[in-house]
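hiii, so i know i said id send this last week but things got crazy w the move. better late than never?? heres the sequnce for the chain we talked about at the cafe, plus the structure i predicted for it. fair warning i was half asleep when i ran it
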Amino acid sequence: MKKLSYLTPVLTGIIWGSTAPLSKLVLHKITPWDLVVYRIIIGSLTLTLLVKMVKGSEHSRSSFRDLLILSLSGIAIPWLFYNLGLVYVNANHAGLMLGCYPLMTFLIAYFLVGEKLKKLQYVGISVGFVGLLIFFIDKVRIEYSLEWLIGASLIMFSIFCWSVYAAYLKKIGLSGGSLTLTLKMFILSMPIILFSVLFIQHGINLPREPVSISSLIWLGIFASAISYYLFNIGSESISATIMATSGLLIPIVSSILAFIMLSETFNLTEIIGAVLVIAGLVITYLKN
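okay and structure toks below
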């Protein structure tokens, strides 16, 4: 089980990496806010089904306070703020900002639970971040408009929330019950997301094309329910910072899938950056 847990940052990074290209297939007919609503609904139904399948064999002992903090920091607030930030900041900028996720998580986990890493793991994360910088070197053109600064601040705040989530999982000390914990988080986040979206756009649109519907189902089941469940499983035995290295993989996987599915470009610089990111992750997971 511990070996499986050590793979969870990679698995969640790969699954979350599918979010951007599949979202592009969905967002022709519905808004980003509709997408958030469908992800939380489909994710909640998926987790409910999984809990029924295991016949309630595991239980989460987390308090309502803990659940509320996890729901707000891990799902409701970052999902809403990240989408709002993307109104002002393009996906390339947002992908580069995700590279800050491991560092921000380390800082929060250090002060919250006194988490420390091995020297080789610091090296690996640094190599991965440098790789991400190289990966985006030709894509990112920084804009210093007020709108860009607002959008960047919203996205960085979302990443901060996800970092709090990763660190808080370590603070409460998960030792089983990850499935029911994930379900409770989704259910608790649902009314917050629904009310927020209805306030923003006064209605929810329905996708009609088969490609959009199938992409939406994937995003709800895998990029939402399964990925959060895997992340929570990994957090039972892996440090918050190592779990946050999934953020380094997300833009790499997104670009590879966009190249395959959407015929987007993929040049030599991006290949070098991607190789460095993967090398950094391998170094991070090596034992000292």
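btw DSSP finds 13 helices and no strands in the chain. thought thatd interest u
miss u guys!!
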